[in-house]
């Protein structure tokens, strides 16, 4: 049984649902409802909020993966299967009909980075694409032939630059939704081959 102190520690070490989480879930669900996937993956699942919503609202079996063991535990508490993984490393080729990712995208000066799980969840490196680039380089391997990737990107990261990186990996991109905030615009990209 988890005591209150353990739960409080886990909640401060796991990215909790925010505007970006809601935007990704809403955009992906709206797009997937016409043809729900049988198997989907949310990379960097955090609390498991997006994975749970996609599962509940499309009927898909959704796995969550995260490098953070506290995130995997919270995701399992939501009733979502979770695997501790660094991006897509442990997954078989060609199995997921949808892959969702709210990547760490905040540009971060390496001198200002902290060594904790919340930093891992937020920091996208100097240009904000440090995690997005390897994800785009490997997501094609796990994606089913007719599958789609739903990637949340910030204007701070450079949406055009991410679209170019995706194109270099054989994906075409369409923006499903945008939402503007005082310091950034968030965009959900749908990537298909």
Account of the protein in words:
There is one protein chain. The chain has helices at 4-12, 19-32, 49-58, 69-77, 117-122, 132-142, 159-168; strands spanning 39-43, 61-66, 81-84, 96-102, 143-154, 172-181, 184-192. It is α/β, with parallel strands linked by helices. The protein has one domain (4-187): Vaccinia Virus protein VP39 (Rossmann fold). It has a 7-stranded mixed beta sheet. Helix 2 (19-32) runs parallel beside helix 3 (49-58). The protein is globular, with a radius of gyration of 16 Å.
Ends distance: 45 Å
Order of helices and strands: HHEHEHEEHHEHEE
User: For this structure, what is the CATH homologous superfamily?
Assistant: Vaccinia Virus protein VP39
Q: What's the rounded overall pLDDT mean?
A: 87
CATH topology category name? Rossmann fold
Number of helices: 7
Strands of the biggest beta sheet: in what spatial order?
3-2-1-4-5-7-6
User: What structural category arises from helix and sheet content?
Assistant: alpha/beta
Q: Per CATH, which architecture?
A: 3-Layer(aba) Sandwich
CATH hierarchy, class? Alpha Beta
Q: Profile the largest sheet.
A: 7 strands, mixed
Portion in helices: 25-40%
Number of domains: 1
Proportion of strand residues: 25-35%
What is the 3D shape?
A: globular
Radius of gyration: 16 Å
| Unreliable sequence segments | 1-5
Oligomer: single chain
Number of strands: 7
